Amino acid sequence: MQVPFIKMHGLGNDFVVLDGRSAALPTIDAGLAAALANRHTGIGCDQLVVLEPSTVADLRVRFFNADGTESPACGNATRAVGLLLGTAATLETLAGVLHAAPAGDGIAVDMGEPRFAWEQIPLAYALDTLTLPVGWEDLTQPVAVNVGNPHVIFFVPDCQAVPLDRLGPLIEHDPLFPERVNVNVATVEGRSAIRLRVWERGTGLTLACGTGACATAVGAMRRGLVDRTVRVTLPGGTLTIAWGEDNRITMTGPATESFRGTFELGRFAA
Length: 270
Ligand SMILES: N[C@@H](CCC[C@H](N)C(=O)O)C(=O)O
What we know:
InterPro entries: DAP_epimerase_AS, DAP_epimerase_DapF. The protein contains four helices and 19 strands. It is an alpha+beta fold. It folds into two domains: about 1-100 and about 255-265, Diaminopimelate Epimerase, Chain A, domain 1; about 120-245, Diaminopimelate Epimerase, Chain A, domain 1, CATH 3.10.310. Strand 7 and strand 8 (about 105-110) form a beta hairpin. The protein starts with a strand and ends in a 6-residue tail after the last strand. The ligand N[C@@H](CCC[C@H](N)C(=O)O)C(=O)O binds near residues 46, 182, 201, 202 and 209.
């Protein structure tokens, strides 16, 4: 069976998109997702994105990390799907129904409401999520925010200097986070500018993480470090994040289609 795919990215966070809205797709499981994502033996991507019909929105979108695990949310991929659709649309995700629409040269997405209760992150036990009293070497006292997926954010003087490739996996797998966690290191550069690097749960270091940008912006706003609209610059480029009076987060930024192709399912599925 030949399966069509679309290769896309949002600020270098790259995706293989399978469109099952009108054509039947093979069963998507962790093994197939990980095989397709593999950069040596597969197509190669940070996330596999699957589009399906929905009964409650214009379409349903599922996100799989490079290790095959499914995530309820992926900000950059949501913008990429918005680009594919080319018009305002509602997207059913495991994190709720989101709204994406063209905005200038990019796509704006209503990413929903952030959650801060320790059970909602989730943490293994009750702690103050505005200042978690924990640390790993020089990374201490992070904020925890759930924006559909779990994030911790460490505010540091120079995020470029953090050995995130070493500390990221330690923190991701710490028993404090029963569903693991995305690890953000951020430097506030002014009332409306943040620099950010992210170790993504299930994928590792990426060039950009949309939900990481949302969680970091909201964490910085909760701490009073920045205004309610902020530009978040990641290695792959810049997103604008606004946290409105209605408690909803809007993420705006670019997305790109790279190429289209097909793969032979038998090479990847068991
Ligand atoms: N790249 C993403 C986030 C993908 C999911 C994340 N790794 C998780 O498991 O929660 C983004 O742009 O938000």
